[in-house]
User: Fold this.
Amino acid sequence: MNLLVHLSYLAPLVAGLAILAGAPARKTAITASLIAAVSSLIVFLSYDRATAGFQFLSSVPLAQAWDLKFLIGVDGLNATMLLLTSLVTVAAVYVSPRLEEGENRYVACVMFISAGAAGAFASLDLFFFYAFHELALIPTFLMIGIWGTGNRQAAAWKITIYLSIGSIILLIGLIGLYLLPSPADRTFDITKLQQMAATGVFNGQNAHPVYLLLLVGFGILVSLFPFHSWAPPAYAAAPVPVAMLHAGVLKKFGLYGLLRLVLPLMPQPVHDWSWLLLILIVGNVLFVGLATIAQKQLDFTLGYSSVMHMGYIFLGLATYNVIGVNGAALLMLAHGLSIAALFAIAGEVRKQTGTLDYRDLGGLVKNMPTLTFMFGLATFASIGLPGFANFPSELLVFFGAFKNSTPGAAFGAFQWVAMIALWGVVISSVYMLRAYRAIFFGERPGRWQALKDAPVTFGLPVVLLLAALVIIGLNPQSVIGAIEPGFRLFLK
Amino acid sequence: MPPILVELLVLGLGMFLLMLEAFARHHDRRVFAFIGIVGLAGVFCVLQSFHPSEARVISAYAIDAPALFFKKFVVVTTIIVLVMAMDYADTIRKFVPGETPESGIGEFFALPVLTCAGMMWMASAVDFILIFVSLELVTISFYVLVAYMRRNAASLEAGVKYLILGALSTGFFVYGVTWIYGVTRQTNLFEIERVLPTIAAANQPGLLFGALLVLVGLGFKIAAAPFQFWVPDVYQGAPTPTTAFLSVGSKAVGFIVLLRVVEALQSLRPVGEKMLFALVLLAAATLVYGNLAALPQTNFKRLLAYSSIGHAGYLLMAVASFGAGDAGKAVVVYLAAYLLMTLLSFLILIIVAQHSEGDDIAHFNGLAKRSPFLAFSLLVAMMSLAGVPLTAGFLGKFLVFKVAYETGQFLLLALGVITVGCGFYYYLKVVRAMYWQPVPGNAAAIPVNSLSLITIALLVLFIFVFGIFPGLALGLAG
Assistant:
């Protein structure tokens, strides 16, 4: 079983290297992503939910003096994230275009991004947790710059510089976290850090600057308002697989980091600074939400909407109770699947028409009934209609936020923010339905008469993502049952 | 063999090569480099057999763990510089007139070996006199090496600038040493450390003045702002192997001397603290200047010059955090990583420049198609210089930031965040040229000879090994 956990990041990593060395690009990538998907599904299903905590651990000591080792293992949370990574990877590889030149490098980069994300989720050691994530930065830079669309070079610079600065702030925060305990107890081992949390060593006055560094560092990676401006142009310019993997999976790394490190270790700073986070959340949901409505192109709409939805997840984290945090974790999965499906469909529309501008498109349903149907489902999922995984997650987030009681006030800050965030649902239905109508319905300009519906090979990966959304949407307990025991260790 | 003889061995090797130059008129001079490489590889094996010890046979000569590390460090650097020099021989021939194509270029392969001997002495030197003498041996051979291409105006200009600034910095250094001697009556660093707590309070300003002058002198050597202004022109004008040697070897030995001086001064707290404060200012200025000035560069060699200033900033950040237990370790690991990635960049620069009529970043356009191997290797070097995890460069930055955090250098940390962001920009500019830009019309594939190929592959391998197995690099640091 340990081997299967390793496969989740090793399969894409080895496949990427093999493709660079000359292996057939598509076949190798598809095989590797399917191997990773099957192994992470088996890991997810065989994770023993009755006993909370980390399972399938395996480690290689690397620096004794620092207690640094290569430690791989899962609990319900990262098993879920690995599942998300591998599902989106399969879809991303399937929708990769056939290129005459440089296909090897293209697919290898996709594999490296996937390996970076999976490695970051699978690592239970601070050093590799951080290292794997940044491994994905360079392939992203190369792919947006070489194979992107529109203003691709500016977008590639922006995302790379932004994320590298975010990463270095995060690094300083992690160093601060590592240095908080007394010298004899210092460790990079996340499982040990969580055990030490009970001693309150991460909870004192010294922990506050560390918390802020981690919040800003992780926040930049997740596009927390006001550090979000890198995301929309990058996702708009990125090749489809990169947009899917980045918006769907990599961006969740920051949230995962908060769930994994900050919430269990530093309850006091989280509580004391929740006012700050709540203000930023309002910015994420309301400000970015209104900015999303103003967009005139589908790729930018999706980019902004993915920033906006991070606000709900942050709200779930901020509630600091089991219901809200469960909702946040489930929404990470649901949002990852739905935004990946949306970007895949948007990429297909762009491939056929060369544009995603609402003013140029319209009436495509006549040519593309299947694609229209799939986009409709993904849209409904993204808005949060019942039946899709996004619905129970957002519901839990709002319940969690309402449940959070501010001392002395029945209706405190959390309730106000939840009220505002509920309006975000209205906002998101406005822009998503508007996009749906503008592209697929209404009058069809003459030049789109000859368009054909998407081929079946394209439909498969999107169906996979949508099916996962529906299955989890109808039975959210299948995921929550796995992640909740871990949260119960430190939450009420 | 007693450790103290090992420098004489290297010196002998250098002399032997010089003699050979006089007697072997018609042989390809690259054979010299090859003999040098083999000889130095032998010296490296001899160094491997030594164990660090605190005992000193001669009071001026230490053979402790840092000394041994830096000796190996400069030997490896010299070997790689000789590999570069072989690739660079054609360019040297072009700018050095002579009766036969081979005349006059032999010293280019012999002098680095002599410089290496000087640097090895410097690694062991714990007495200002020995430091000064070995520093001069290093600097004087560099005067020749920098100005070697005597039909090339840029090289001559670089030579003159280096000569003047080198002499000036030596002047600062020696003047500082006399003040320290005047206060302590000692030139030996261990003796100075011992007697410092006993000196009269009235003498403390004099001591501090001397120490700061020494810092200025060393600041020139390690290219710390505001003593960095010679660096861009000299680095760009000098023959590229010399530039690599300057930026790695010269900087490294500058840092070991700096570390030893700072350590000795810590025995008198008021002076030690002021010294550390001066180092903080120096580190801040160097970080900001090196990284900001690197942003607009379009010439790769000049970019590497500014990047070398920037890296001096990170190294100074570690020295300024001397209070933390791992500060020395951070310097050592950072320098080891710096050696790997900087020499790798220069080696690839030489090969690419020879096939592209220049060393601008634009000449790297489309390198990914002209030579995927070189492009990938340079990608690794750039990533490591920028500090991407799982490379040696990240480990160095990680350690530096860790010691800075431990000693509460929050100003330097904040500057570090900005400068790392700058670094990503200017290193990725090279990556952009290689991978984004199309191949220029007339550019052909680039052949790589087998010796360079092996060297590049080994450097890439070690960059990853150090990055993935931090224990190894830490073990190296002792």
Notes: Residues 67 and 187 of chain A are 5 Å apart (CA to CA). Chain A has a mean pLDDT of 90. The first helix of chain A runs from residue 2 to 20.
